Amino acid sequence: MRKLPPPPNLTALLALAALADLFLFRITRAIFLPTHQGTTAERWLADAALFASSFAGVLALVLAASALLSALRGDQVFPRSMRITVSTIGLFFCVLAGIGVLADLAPQYNVHMRISHAFLTCFLALGLLRSRRSWRFKLGITLFALPIVMQAFLIFTLRMTWAHVVPGPIARLAHGISLAAMLVAPLLFVQEPWSRLRVVLATAAGLLFAAGLASALALRFDLVQAALLYGLQIDLTGSTSMAERLYSGALVAAFASLGAGVAASMAGPGRSRLTGWGLLLMGVAGAEVASAKAALFTLCGLMALVLSGKVRALPVAAADESLLPPPAAPTARS
């Protein structure tokens, strides 16, 4: 019997499309391409960037809706007590995100989209806390989800006239938690066993990424500053004071560690590769969920990370007796 080819990995396709959206649309088109009529090559590159951005947004919308529907049919992600709430908020988010991807979303509806996205992220983390996952995996998802919730809380409080919240410290704390999540991602998400090949690949990827980013900061700080601002919503103020140099070093370490986690996951078997694609989506989404595409990228990345984690088996003594088969009826002896 002829063996069928494996089904296409749409999460991997989305991660690659999001990577193309980052480098072609958010960085190259915004910094290097002219705003008016350019050469033929520049027009072709601008059209390719626009296609990559549109394709990534539509694919992220389809995968996010499919992942939510699949998660609501079982108890692996959301418990039964959350299904009605998650389905209502998920439908509201998908409608607003779809409008944001296919057309322009008004500022007031963009706020609603970000708040509904924060609720979905919060429910995802809360549902995971009840699951039989390892504490490292739960901590990693919480570190990635907490900044999204904090950013939505800031937007909500700033629009309320009765709220008196200083946004600066909360925004800096949320960004610091995001960097911490990226820094410890290889330790929290990469599944065992760590073979020698995975250790070598992760170390090499981390060192190469750190060396390349540090060299770019030293040689062309202005170019890296513009790329981080337009691509990832990260503002590098300068490199003169000690605090600014420490922040630049933290950025280099965080992205190098995330790259090492992606490389180690890709070298692993089975569901470990889904972890790598999820980490890649979380990295290219940016530091702030300021658009519908970024919200969809983070939601798909978190769903990929959740589905890639292993569920620990319960001991026999702690298992639910209602899930065990009924005892066999005694047979009459002749």
Tell me the domain tally: 1
Total of helices:
12
Q: Which structural class fits the helix and strand makeup?
A: mainly alpha
The largest sheet is:
none
Q: Helix share of residues?
A: over 70%
The separation of the N and C termini measures 50 Å
Report the mean per-residue pLDDT as an integer. Answer: 83
Number of strands: 0
Notes on the protein architecture:
There is one protein chain. Mean pLDDT is 83; it is low at 1-7 and 313-327. The protein has 334 residues and is mostly helical. It has helices at 10-31, 40-72, 83-102, 107-129, 135-159, 167-183, 185-189, 196-219, 221-232, 242-266, 272-285, 292-308.
Summarize the model shown:
The protein has 334 residues and is mainly α. It has helices at residues 10-31, 40-72, 83-102, 107-129, 135-159, 167-183, 185-189, 196-219, 221-232, 242-266, 272-285, 292-308.
